[in-house]
Prior knowledge:
The protein is mostly helical.
Amino acid sequence: MANYYEVLRVAQDATGAEIKSAYRRLARKLHPDKNNGAEDTARRFAEIAEAYEILGNPKQRAQYDRKILDAQFRGNGHSVFTSNNKHANRWRQMVYERRYNDILDRMIAEERREAMAFQKVVYPLSAFLVSAIISTAVRPHIFQDAEILGKIAIITLFTIGVIHLIGRVRDGFVRYTSYDDNIHDSILDDRDRKAPVRSRYAVAATLICSILAAFLAGWVIGTFITFPAELAPSAFGRVLNPEFILYPPIITFFVDLMHSLATRLERRPADVDNIEMFR
């Protein structure tokens, strides 16, 4: 059985991000288009693509690790099922179970990291789009009427929010998109690909259009709905002031902060059920 960890030159406890980085590094180096279609290079490239196909998927990686573990304990006459020494058999069984539990724990941790990485991109972007609509619709003039300290606080929070949002978007682009001329994450055809390769330029254009559409939607809503100005004329008006652009990054920052705190406090009792399911 091929050792996919050796193929990608990573440790057996490598994270998903490390495996992906190793694959991309080797793919750029060995891609047939960059080596005049050399047979040896093409074969090597196919090997790393196959290795990444397995190790890049947490569940398939866990199944592969289980096969390695079984081979280690069944080979060379040292099987836990054939040993005549009951003490050695019991010791091997304990080691086997511990290593198998480590495999499952690693799979669950990797799936959790992937889910968290996705949420760290989706939540801020969703919060920004919704807050862009709300901010444009209610037409606040809080900054305009604030004292100097209030204006400094708003500008500070706006700056923090923009930096935070840019960081989230950058992380999402690095993890989930690629340039059109980059090596794809797999040489599989589109029917077998786990996730489509997203063009970085196309995603950026879609994101910009979504933001503009959110502000336009808020402007349209604000022209028909005027009750915020009627309920709190000291904070909201009927005229759209330029300061509406200040609030979406601030709201996004606090929403994402609350989500992060809630995630850290969240308990995950389902982990035990997940482990039992894969036994």
